Amino acid sequence: MNEEAVFQTATAAYERGRWRWAAVSALPMAVIPLASFAIGQRMLPSVVLGVALLAMATALLWRGQGFGRGLAVGLKAGLVPLVLSHAANLYGHVCTATGCTSLCVPACAAGGVVAGFVIASAAARTPARWHVIGAGGVTACLIGAFGCSCVGFGGIAGMVLGMAISLTAVRLWPATHGVDR
Amino acid sequence: MDRTEKAELSLALARLARGDRSAQRAVFELAWPLVLGFCRRLLIDPGDSEDAAQRAVIRMFEQASQYDVDRDGLTWALEIALWECRTVLRKRGRSRAEQLSAAALEVADGSLPADSVIERKEIDAALTEVLGAVSELDRQALLDGLSGVTWRKRRQRALSRLKLLWSTRYE
Predict the structure, then answer these.
(1) In principle, which of A114, A151, B66, B171 could form an S-S bond with B167, CB 3.0–4.6 Å?
(2) Is the CB of B54 less than 8 angstroms away from the CB of A67?
(3) CB of A160 within 8 A of CB of A109?
(4) Is B69 on the interface with A (CB under 8 A)?
(5) What is the distance in angstroms between the Cα of A96 and the nearest Cα belonging to chain B?
(6) B32 with A14: Cβ contact below 8 A
C-alpha cells in the first residue's frame, strides 16, 4: 500500500470515527426530550422533536468547527424559552377582569428574544459567525419547541419571531452605530 | 522531530479534533514518517512494521475527534503506534505458542521425543524464513530438482547464497 492509499484510508477512517464520536456525544441531549415529556406529558412532540434534535446535533458535531460551536451556543440559548415556557405552562392561566389568558405564548416570545441575544453575542466573538448563528438558531428553536409546543404552532411561532427580532437587532445595531464587528 | 514540528503536529491535531478537514494532510505528513520510523525501531520485520504503522495512522485518524487539545500530539501519536506494535508482537507470540502446542500434540502421540519435535519445528520455521528471503530464481533452482550442467551450476550458486543468508541470520 503506497502513502497516498494510506492517506485515503486514514481520511475515510476519520469520517467514520467522527460520525461515531458525534453520535455518542449527542446522546446526553436525549435528557431534554425525556425531561420535557416528564414535565409536559406530551408524547408525540417529545418523540418527534427528540429524534430531530439528536439527528441534528449528531450532524452538527460531525461537521464541527463553527457548526459545533453553534450547537453549544444554541443549547444554552434554547434552554431559556424551554424553561420559561414550561414554567408558564405549570403556572397556568392569568385571569383579569376581561378574561383568562395563557402565559405560554408571551413566555415563548420572551424566551426567543433572550435566546436570539445570546446567539448573536456569541457569534460576534467567533470568526465563523454565520455558521454559529445558523446552527445556534436552529438548535435553540428545536430545544425551545419542546416547551413552546404547549400551545401548538402559536408558541413556536412566537419564539421564532422573538429570536429573529433580537438576532436582527443585535446584528444590525453595530452597523448602524458604526461599530466594526 | 524538532520542537517546531512537534508543535505543528499538536496544532494540526487540535484543528482536526475540531472538525477542520484541511488539517488532514498536515497531520498525515507529520505523523506518517514518525510513526513508520518508530514501528521500524520496535519491530524487526519490515512487513510487520509497515503494517503496524498503517494501522496506527488509521487509528489515529479514527480517534482524532477525541484528541485532547491540551495533550502533546507526538506522545499521543506514539502511544497509538506503540499499541499497534504490541498487538503485532502479541500476535506473533500467539502463533509461536500455536506452533509449540502443535508440537506438543505430536509428542503426545509418542512418535518422537519432545525436544526433537520442538527442534524440528524451529528448524522448519527458520528454513521457511530463509527460503522466503532468497530470490524466486534461486528458490526454483533449489527446489525444482532439474538436472543438467546449467541447473547444477545455478543450484550451487543458489546454495552458497542460501548458506550465506543462513549464516548471517543463525550463526
Answers:
(1) B171
(2) no
(3) no
(4) no
(5) 53
(6) no
The predicted complex's ipTM stands at 0.77
The cell numbers describing A49, all together, are: 422533536
Contact A64 B18 (CB under 8 A): yes
A158 contacts A108 by C-beta, under 8 angstroms: yes
- Contact in structure between B66 and B17 (CB atoms under 8 Å): yes
- Kindly determine whether residue A10 and residue B63, on different chains, have CB atoms separated by under 8 Å: no
For B22, the closest chain A residue by CA position comes to A11
Task: For residues B140 and B62, state if they share a domain.
Answer: no
| Residue that terminates a domain, selected from B92, B118, B146 | B92
Asked whether residue B8 falls in the same domain as residue B82, the answer is yes
**B18 and B73 together in one domain:** yes
- Cβ atoms of residues B62 and A13 within 8 Å: yes
A167 vs chain B: nearest CA distance in angstroms?
26
Out of B74, B92, B110, a domain closes at B92
- Enclosing domain of residue B14: 3-92
State whether B24 and A68 contact (CB < 8 Å). Answer: no
Q: Number of A:B CB contacts under 8 A?
A: 57
The structure's pTM equals 0.71
B11-64 confidence digits (pLDDT tens): 999 999 999 999 999 999 999 999 998 888 888 788 888 999 999 999 999 999
Number of compact structural domains in chain B: 2
pLDDT digits (tens, 9 = 90+) for A8-65: 999 999 999 999 999 999 999 999 999 888 887 888 888 999 999 999 999 999 999 8
- Whether residue B111 sits in one domain with residue B80: no
Whether residues B52 and B105 fall in one domain: no
Using CB atoms within 10 A of its CB, is residue B107 exposed (0-12), middle (13-18) or buried (19+)? Answer: middle
Element (H, E) at A99: strand A99-102
Is there a single domain that holds both residue B57 and residue B76? yes
The grid coordinates listed for A29 are 441531549
